[in-house]
Amino acid sequence: MKSLENLLYLMTRLRDPQSGCPWDLQQDFKSIVPHTLEECYELADTIEREDFSHLREELGDVLFQVVFYCQLGQEQELFGFDQVAQTLVDKLVRRHPHVFPDGTLRGKVADASPSEATIVENWERIKQREREEKARPGLLADIPLALPALTRARKLQKRASRVGFDWSGAAAVMDKVREETDELQEDIERGNPRGIEEELGDLLFSVVNLARHLKVDPETALRQANRKFERRFSSMEAELAAASRSFDGLTEEQMNRLWEAAKGRTAGDSNRE
User: Fold this and answer.
1) 170 occurs within a structural domain
2) Are residues 199 and 256 in the same domain?
3) What is the pTM for the complete model shown?
């Protein structure tokens, strides 16, 4: 692919010690991690807003992060782009025996595909074997600490559920949410800051569990709620500006009326911006 060759060549030029970009030359594996996370969030935001006219650009930005890491790996004689791509191919072939039955990329399936439950079971079994080969046998061992807390909570719960450590259903989790809410209320009434933090964490963890049982991604749900709040708050600001007013001096009752009016104006909005 000529376009990929051009991208890899561009990266070598950016990192050329003599004629490269000073900023790019200063970077290392750790320094570009924040940029990688930012680009991934921008990609997710673009998809959630269904802003498909900019999706190609955002995908390119994420791809550039991968190419950057590969260039650093090549310079340190650790790995290059080809090795990264082949490692990915090998792993996906290994994890999809229902597609590649003989363990090769060109293998074909002769019989009907297995059920989704069987596919998931095989996937987890293969991943567990990979964890053991990496000397990280614990069921939760490879869940990254750097994940957003809501996402990591969901992954911890989902992984534990593989061995049956789970609630029976959403109704049981709702009871747990109520229990954690009551415990939080008790610590609030006692004025116990450490207890409040702990119980609030337990409540959030339980809410994530509820989202998982309802098949809702908590990060996505919260991002949508954030955008909804932004739209409504911006509508409040616009109404005040039209009346040459500001939030200064407004009573709680006046703010509540503005908020309810904003909810009415944005009730038909989609989550797209």
Assistant:
1) yes
2) no
3) 0.66
| Sole residue written with tokens 């109520």 | 178
**From the centroid of its chain, how far is CA 242?**
38
| Residue-wise burial string across 225-262, b where 16 or more C-beta atoms lie within 10 A, e elsewhere | eebeeebbeebbeeeeeeeeeeeeeeeeeeeeebeeeb
203-240 pLDDT tens trace = 999 999 999 999 999 988 998 899 899 999 999 999 99
Residues recorded for the chain: 273
Say yes or no: 10 and 73 in one domain: yes
Range of the domain at 241: 218-265
What is the CB neighbour count within 10 angstroms for residue 115?
10
What's the token pair of residue 134? 């990496």
**pLDDT per residue over 136-189, tens digit each?**
668 888 888 888 899 999 999 999 998 899 999 999 999 999 999 999 999 999
Whether residue 273 is contained in a domain is answered as: no
